[in-house]
Amino acid sequence: MAADIKIFNPDTLGKPLGQYSQITRVKASEFVFIAGQLAADKAGNVVGADDFDAQCVQVFGNIEAALKSVGGGWGNVVQFTTYLVHSQDIPKFMTYRLREFPGMFPNGAYPPNTLLMVDRLVKEPFLVEVQAMAAI
């Protein structure tokens, strides 16, 4: 059974404040929970220290690799949770998503995303972490 994923914004809720939707409704045989991904390469080295955009590229590249490892892709993502260290990076995060999400989600149905500010991540140089849930 292939996952039946419907991502939408009901009329009863306000318009999203960014590149996300309010609701994902899923019927699936399998769910995949991807741990928060950081801007680290396969060897664990920090990628893009002090470069928020470079870190986003690595983070979402890691998520894509995780999705592919289970036979999925961006269309299988049902939710993101994003952690930022600096609130000043919110506009940079929104700019990254405005630029990249149309290619990742060509149907314009962007998965729900919860954005949280945290004091720091596991290592000081990391600026962004993104966790994903997918349905296969």
Question: Could you walk me through the main structural features you see in this protein, from its secondary elements to its overall organization?
Answer:
The chain is of the alpha+beta class and 136 residues long. It has a single domain, classed as RutC-like (60s Ribosomal Protein L30, Chain: A, 2-Layer Sandwich). The chain is 24% helix and 28% strand. It has helices at 52-69, 90-104; strands at 4-8, 23-27, 31-37, 77-84, 113-117, 128-135. It has a four-stranded mixed sheet with strand order 3-6-4-5. A two-stranded antiparallel ribbon has the order 1-2. The protein is globular, with a radius of gyration of 15 Å.
Write down the CATH topology: 60s Ribosomal Protein L30, Chain: A
First-residue to last-residue Cα separation: 9 Å
SSE succession: EEEHEHEE
Structural class: alpha+beta
Q: How large is the radius of gyration?
A: 15 Å
Q: In the CATH hierarchy, what is the superfamily?
A: RutC-like
Q: What is the name of the CATH class?
A: Alpha Beta
- Count of the domains: 1
- Can you give the mean pLDDT? 96
Q: Could you give a short account of the major beta sheet?
A: 4 strands, mixed
The neighbouring-strand order within the major sheet is: 3-6-4-5
Poorly predicted residue ranges: none
Number of strands: 6
CATH architecture: 2-Layer Sandwich
The 3D shape can be described as globular
**Helix tally?**
2
Beta-strand portion reads 25-35%
Helix content bin: 10-25%
SSE diagram, text form:
Layout: E1 4-8, E2 23-27, E3 31-37, H1 52-69, E4 77-84, H2 90-104, E5 113-117, E6 128-135
Parallel strand pairs: 4-5
Antiparallel strand pairs: 1-2, 3-6, 4-6
